[in-house]
Amino acid sequence: MPDVEMKATDKKEDKKDEKKEESEKEAPKQPPPTPTQEIKANIALIERAINDLEPRYTYRVLRSFTSLRKRISDKVLRDAIEENYPKDSAVKASLLSWVPPAPPAEQSMEVDTAPTTSETTPPPSKPSSDPVPEAEIYLRLLIIHHLHSSKETYSKSIQISHETVDKMQSMNRRSMDPIAAKVWFAVERSYELGGELADARPMFLAAQRTASLRHDDDTQASLINRLLRGYLHYNLYDQADKLVSKTTFPVSASNPQYARYHYFLGRIKAVQLNYTAAHTNLQQAIRRAPTAKTAPGFYQAVHKLFVIVELLMGDIPDRGLFRHPVLEKALGAYFDIVKAVRTGSLSEFQSTLNKHAAQFEADKTYTLIVRLRQNVIKTGIRRLSLSYSRISLRDICLKLHLDSEEDAEYIVGKAIRDGVIEGRIVHEKGWMECGGQKNAYGPEAIEVFGRRIGYCLDLHNQSVKAMRYPLNAHRKELAAAQDAREREKELAKEIQEGDMDDDEGLGDY
Amino acid sequence: MASHKLATLYKELQRAFDARPSDLKKCGTLLAQLKVGLIEAGLLIPQGEANLQDLVVARDILEIGVFWSIRAQDIPSFDRYFSQLYTFYTDYRSSLPPSKREFPVRGLNLIRLLTQNRIADFHTTLESLPLPADEINTNPYIRHPVNLERWLMEGSYSKVWNAREEAPAEEYKFFVDSLMGTIRNEIASCEESAYESLPLKDAATLLFFTSQSGLLKFAQQRGWQVDLTAGLITFAKKNDELVEIPKEKLIAANLAYARELEQIV
Predict the structure, then answer these.
(1) DSSP per-residue letters across B143-175
(2) Which domains does chain A have, with CATH numbers?
(3) For residue B199, what are the β-bridge partners?
(4) Where is the composition biased (Acidic residues) (chain A) (predicted)?
C-alpha cells in the first residue's frame, strides 16, 4: 500500500533528520525558526484564517505540516502548549496530559540549547485567553503524530485520537474541516500501527455519513480514502467497489487526496479487468501526485501498477520510465517482465515471474501479472502476423512454446476474433494467412481526436476557474472603468458635435 | 430446547447427507427445518459473540446446504447458501477452527462465476481469497478453476475440454456441462471470424462433437450455411458492413468546439 511505503521512506528520513538535528544541536543553532516558534506562527495563521473567513491560511499551515512533523519532540510540544495557552486553562491541562512530563535529566541536558531559544525569542508574552479551538485540534494532531514515532505510545495515540475525534464532532465547526481531515489520517495511522485497521472501519463509516451530511468536503475526501485503503488492505475489492459506487468524491478535494483516490480506483478497476478505466485513473493519480522526490513511495507504487496495467492493455511502457532516478531500482523486476512480454516469449515470462514472485506478492501485483500470460501470447502472435504473410500453425506452436498444434489453432482463432490480428486460418492446409494492416483513419480516429480536444478545453476552463483574484482589487478597476467611461462619453459627445458640424457643412452644400 | 431439537435434526441431516447415494429429498426438507431453527437461535447471520461450538455447527449445516443445492442442481439456492457462509469464512475466520470444506466451497463458487461468464467477479473473488499467491497454484480446489480461467482466456479450449475429468470434487462436474456449452459458443464465434469455410469433419472435432447430427443442429442454431454434399460449412462474412460516418456526432462536436473557442477568444 502506498501510504505505508510513504511512511517507510518517511521514517528513514525521520531517522536521518533526527541524527542531523542532534549534530546540529552541538553546533550553534541558527534560524530557520525553531519548531516551537513555527507552531506559534502557525497558530497565529490559523486564528487569522478564522477571523478573516479565509481557509487559505489554514491550508498554508497544513502544507508545512510534514516538514514540521519530523522536527517535533516532547519538549517542543510542551513548550508550544505552554506558550500558547494561559496559565490556568483547562484545555492546556488536558493537552499537557498527553505529553510526558519533562524528566529532570532531560531538562539538564537541554540547558545548553535553552539559552539559544530564549535568545532568539524574546520572552513570549503570555496570552490572556485560549486561542481558537482549531488551534487545540492542531496541537492534538501534532501530538498524535509524535506518539506514532515510538512503539510504546501506539495505544496512547489511539486513545487521544478517539478523544480528539469526539471533540471535533461535538464542536462541529466548518472552519475546522481542513484540520479535521488531517486528523482522520492520523487516526487511521494510529489504528494501523497500534492494532487492527479493520477495527476503525465502523467509526470511519459513521463519520463519513456525518461528513457528507454536513457537506464537509475535506473530511469526506479524507475518509473515503481511509475506507478504501482499509478495504484494499484486506483485499475486500467487492466492498471497496460498492463504496465507490455509493459515494461521490467531493470535487473540491485537494490534490493529494485526489491522487490517492485515483490510485485506489485504478487498483479496483484493474482487478475487475477494466483496464482502460484503470489506466485513466492511474494516469490521473500520477499527474496529481506530489513530485517524485517528495513522495517517492507513492510515486513508485503507482508506477508499478501503471506498468502492469499498460501491459495488460497490450501497450509497452516507455523505456525512459525505467531510467527515472526514483523508479529505476523499484521497477527493476517490472522491467524484466516488460522485456519478456515484449519479446512474446512464454518461457522467459515464466522464469521472470518465478524469480521475482516474492516482490510481486509484496506489491500485491502477483495475480495481475499472472494474467499477463495471455498478453505474452497475443504479443507473440501479433509479431508473427506482422512479419509473415503466411505461417503454418506448427511453426506458431514452436515459436511461442505452445503445447500443441490444436491449441495454436484455437489461440489464433481467438486472437482473430478479439481483433488482435487481421487474418484468417486455412484449416485444410494448416496455416494462417495474415491480412494487411487495419485502416487507421476510421471513425475511431475522430473519437480519439475529440477526446484530446475535450481534454485541452477542459484544462483551459479549469485553469480559468482556478485563477484567484485579490479581494477588493476590482474596486480600483471599477474606478478606472468609471473614468474610462466618462472619457468615452466626452469623446462621444465631441464626435457627436463634430458630426453635427459636418452635417451642417453638408447641409450647406 | 431449540438447540436440542437442532442437534437431533443436524445429526439426521449428516446421516442423510453421508449416505451413498445421499437422500436429496430428505436433505432438502431437513435443511429447511434447520434454517428455521438457526434463525430462531440467531445463528444464521450471527452477530456479536456467539458460542463457538454453535457457530461451527451452523457453518457445517450451511456447507451441507451448498453441496446439496449443487446435487439438486439448484443454482439460486447455491448462491444463497454461499453468501450466508461468507460471513463465517471472513468475519469469524480468526475465531473459528478452519473448515476442511471451505476451499471446495470457494472453488465451486469460482467455477460458477466462470460458467456464467462473470470474469470480473471471478477475479475480485480470487483476489479476496485468504491465500498467499503461491498457494493458489497448490491448493487443488482453487487451482482447478484458476487454470480453467487461464485456458479460457488464452483460447486453449482443448485443455479445458480435457480437464473435464480432472475435477477435484464430485460437485465440480455439475458445472462442467454448462461450461462446455459456454466453450462451444466461444469456439463457434472464433471460427466465424477466423475461417471462411471449414470441412464438416474438422468442425466436429474443433467443437468437440462426436456425432454429425449434433453438429448440424448446432450449425443451424448459429445460422451457418452447411453444404452437405461438399461437406463444407461456410461462414457468412460480417466484416464487409459499410462504415457510416457519424454525421450528427461530428456536427455536435464541431459546434461544441466553436462555442468553446468563442469563449476563449
Answers:
(1) HHHHHHHHHHHHT-HHHHHHGGGG-SSTTHHHH
(2) 33-102+130-226 (no CATH), 373-437 (1.10.10.10)
(3) B232
(4) 497-509
Q: Which amino acid is at B254?
A: N
* Cβ–Cβ < 8 Å for B191, A426: no
Rounded distance, CA A420 to CA A314, Å?
A: 9
Rounded distance, CA A484 to CA A481, Å? 5
- Write out the H or E segment, with its range, that includes residue A432: strand A431-434
**Cβ(A423)–Cβ(B239) below 8 Å:** no
pLDDT tens-digit map of A246-281: 888 888 888 888 999 999 999 999 988 888 899 999
pLDDT, average across residues B182-198: 83
Q: Which of B132, B133, B194 sits opposite A425 (nearest CB)?
A: B194
Mean pLDDT of the residues in chain B: 79
Is the Cβ of B254 closer than 8 Å to some Cβ of chain A?
Answer: no
Per-residue buried b or exposed e for A25-50, using 16+ beta carbons within 10 Å of the residue's own CB: eeeeeeeeebbbbbbbebbebbeebb
Weakest-pLDDT range from A29-38, A42-51, B86-95, B219-228 = A29-38
**CB within 8 Å: A414 and B206:** no
The C-alpha atoms of residue A53 and residue A43 are separated, in whole angstroms, by: 15
User: Given this model, what pLDDT does residue A260 score?
Assistant: 92
One-letter amino acid for residue A254 of the chain: S
Q: What is the pLDDT of residues A103-136, one digit of tens each?
A: 554 444 444 444 434 334 444 455 566 677 788 8
pLDDT of residue B237: 63
Catalogue all structural domains in chain B, each as residue range(s) with its CATH number. Answer: 2-239 (1.25.40.990)
pLDDT of residue B100 exceeding 50, the answer is yes
Segment A320-350, tens digit of pLDDT: 888 888 888 888 889 999 988 888 778 888 8
3-state secondary structure of A98: coil
- The answer to whether the CB atoms of B124 and A272 lie below 8 A apart is yes
**Residue A501: pLDDT band with limits 50, 70, 90:** low
Q: Which residues contact A59 (CB under 8 A, 6 or more apart)?
A: A178, A254
Residue type, A211: A
Q: Which residue has the higher pLDDT, B93 or B215?
A: B215
- B190 and A374 within 8 Å at the Cβ level: the answer is no
Q: Tell me the shortest Cα–Cα distance from A426 to chain B, in angstroms.
A: 7
Q: Which three cell numbers stand for residue A392?
A: 503454418
CA-based nearest residue to A188, from A178, A177, A201: A201
Q: How many CB atoms lie within 10 A of CB A350?
A: 14
Query: What's the pLDDT tens digit per position in B28-63?
Result: 777 777 777 777 766 666 666 667 777 777 888 888
Q: Rounded to whole angstroms, how far apart are CA atoms A62 and A66?
A: 8
Residue of A nearest to B238 (CA): A417
- Burial of A14: CB neighbours in 10 Å, binned 0-12, 13-18, 19+: middle
